[in-house]
Amino acid sequence: MSAPKKPLVIGNWKMNLDFVEAVHLGQQIGVLLKNRPAEHTDVVVAPPFVDLRSVTSIVASERIAVTVAAQHVNPNENGAHTGEISVAMLQRLGVEWVLVGHSERRALYAMDDAIVAATLRAVVRSGLKVVLCVGEALDVREEGDQDEWVRRQLRAALEGLDERFGELVTVAYEPIWAIGTGLTATSAQVYEMMTHVRSVLAGLKLVDARVLYGGSVNAENAASLVAEGHVDGFLVGGASLKAESFLAIIGACDDCYALKR
Ligand code: PGA
Questions:
Q1: Reduced to 3 states, what is the DSSP secondary structure of residue 4?
Q2: Does the annotation mark 196 as catalytic?
Q3: Is the CB of residue 103 below 6 angstroms from any atom belonging to ligand 1?
């Protein structure tokens, strides 16, 4: 097996926390990270758009060891897209990452494969890093078609991507049936899917991409998922809204990586 990749833990705050609450959580994360630095793990938070400026400011002024992601972006450069935000706007705020194709965007906001592919390209062409989210619904899993489903989503988004952008790509496997439901995939299910995703990525010449798991990750299950599921980190929703549980998840990745090296 190839050398383990440096883990990455991303807190997806979704549509939670106004800018005052976001600054507070950012500061709490900062204090905990100073007490127990995540030496081997990259830490990212993805606040709502309206919190980005406050969070990037607090991260810079208090030297908090996290970088900042946006949860979504519009692929167009500018123009008549009421309610949308461009990649350049994010860049000006010091945002370094963008989540693309989260299942909630796909399901609720008509983000189809073509829009996912266009968005992903707009992000990496600007030099920002992308976290491509993929994952199957429960009925697909029950039919046993999850590998084919995820392969199709990965190819639709990444096929033909210029290899020079490879280092900007991270994939998050998030089975829809595990998101916000308290139902976590088992370590064995995660391990199988990690292996599958990595082999599809190898076929796309993206061997360096980190592959994360997301879906009801919490302080209790993170250690076994990272050790037995062979993930390169996590995309965390609910448990990232409390500094203590977010830090416990980061700590699990950090400890596991330190042991494996
Ligand atoms: P959850 O969300 O951890 O609350 O299940 C994960 C996600 O949607 O990224």
A1: coil
A2: no
A3: no
- Classify residue 235: in a domain, yes or no: yes
Q: Kindly state if the Cβ of 12 falls inside 6 Å of ligand 1.
A: yes
Given the residues 40, 72, 136, 174, select the one marked as catalytic.
Answer: 174
Which residue has tokens 């998101």?
Answer: 179
From the CA of 104, give the closest atom in ligand 1: 8
CATH number assigned to the domain comprising residue 132: 3.20.20.70
Helix (H) or strand (E) holding 198, with range, is helix 187-203
Catalytic member of 40, 72, 102, 196 = 102
Q: Give me the domain span that covers residue 239.
A: 8-260
Residue whose Cα lies nearest atom 2 of ligand 1: it is 237
- Is 2 inside a domain boundary? no
When divided into structural domains, the chain yields a total of 1
Is residue 24 a part of any domain in this protein? yes
CA 121 – ligand 1 centroid, Å: 24
- For CA atoms 11, 196, 100, 168, give the dihedral sign: positive
d(CA 110, CA 106): 5
Tens-level pLDDT at each residue, the chain (261 residues): 567 899 999 999 999 999 999 999 999 999 999 999 999 999 999 999 999 999 999 999 999 999 999 999 999 999 999 999 999 999 999 999 999 999 999 999 999 999 999 999 999 999 999 999 999 999 999 999 999 999 999 999 999 999 889 999 999 999 999 998 888 899 999 999 999 999 999 999 999 999 999 999 999 999 999 999 999 999 999 999 999 999 999 999 999 888 876
Q: Distance between CA atoms of 218 and 245, rounded to whole angstroms?
A: 7
Q: In ligand 1, which atom is closest to the CA atom of 240?
A: 3
